[in-house]
Design goal:
mainly alpha; globular; disordered N terminus
Length: about 300
């Protein structure tokens, strides 16, 4: 069950991805211990603020505004989105005892992506407010953070040996699968190995899109900083940036991402179908705990 988030899109579209951390942290609960998930969700505004501040180095006034906006965004998410997570978890629990095909696995991916799109739409106004208050020097700081992330990506996926890259992806995939199913057996480990070897993942291709998104972000933000544009123009530009991050204007890259998505769906289905009744029971128990955690989070006022 190999995750594509770091491999195919790591570091790309920082603004969208970071402010989307509320949903990401919540969804990550599906593959984390329940107690850690609850802590992460409740602390999401602070965690997302910290990440944003690392990239922009906020002024005191910006800090107050961003913190307030993130609190509002989380309140909206808790009140309107968590019920959908609970419903999704209930559906998954019913699916776990049976085999699944790639289409069923892709339905899970589509549901998760839809939730992230909704969050990005909600994040547009506060993001536009932030962009309008940025100064040129803060974009320089963002550019430096991009460069640092690029160095890390090249080290992990471009400069490492093919074996080191494969081993890293394999270990991460096994770790995530075992968080759901418990300890994997040889036949399941073989599925992961075979699917990684057959993957369409192309590190240089992913890196090229990463650079495109960074350049797009800098080009889009530069004429908007320091209140150079009207609020309406700024929000429209931010919406366009979010859209190009979620749906690349590069047709070849969209085709590549579709192949990676199909890879991920097929891998999840094949891995799930190789699990034992005991492992599927473990998955149901795990998902049920997450459902209860989301119910608790949904009931909390803050």
């Amino acid at each position: 069950m190999e995750t594509r988030s770091r491999a195919a899109g790591a570091g790309a579209g920082r603004c969208t991805r970071i402010i989307g951390g509320l949903a990401v942290l919540a969804l990550a609960g599906l593959l984390q211990s329940c107690s850690l998930m609850k802590i992460a969700y409740n602390q999401a505004p602070e965690l997302v603020y910290w990440q944003l501040d690392r990239h922009f180095d906020f002024t005191d006034a910006q800090s107050l505004q961003v913190k307030a906006d993130l609190e509002k965004l989380q309140a909206w998410h808790r009140q309107t989105q968590l019920p959908g997570y609970i419903e999704a978890l209930q559906k998954l629990q019913k699916q776990m005892p049976s085999d699944m095909d790639a289409a069923a696995a892709c339905a899970i991916y589509t549901d998760v992506r839809g939730k992230l799109v909704l969050l990005s739409r909600q994040a547009e106004p506060p993001m536009a407010t932030l962009v309008g208050s940025l100064q040129a020097g803060q974009l320089k700081n963002l550019e430096r953070r991009f460069a640092k992330g690029n160095d890390e990506y090249r080290e992990d996926f471009l400069e490492a040996s093919p074996k080191a890259q494969r081993d890293k992806r394999y270990k991460e995939a096994v770790k995530r699968a075992e968080m759901l199913y418990g300890r994997l057996e040889k036949k399941q480990l073989a599925v992961i190995e075979r699917r990684i070897d057959a993957s369409h993942f192309d590190a240089p291709r992913s890196y090229a899109e990463k650079i495109r998104r960074q350049q797009d972000a800098l080009h889009t933000l530069h004429p908007l900083v320091a209140g150079q544009a009207t609020p309406e123009k700024t929000q429209a530009a931010v919406r366009g940036l979010f859209e190009r991050t979620l749906n690349s204007p590069d047709a070849a890259y969209r085709d590549y991402m579709e192949k990676l998505t199909q890879d991920a769906c097929a891998t999840l289905a094949e891995l799930h179908n190789s699990t034992t009744p005991a492992q599927r029971h473990k998955a149901v128990e795990t998902l049920h705990r997450y459902e209860q955690d989301f119910r608790t989070l949904n009931a909390q006022k803050s």
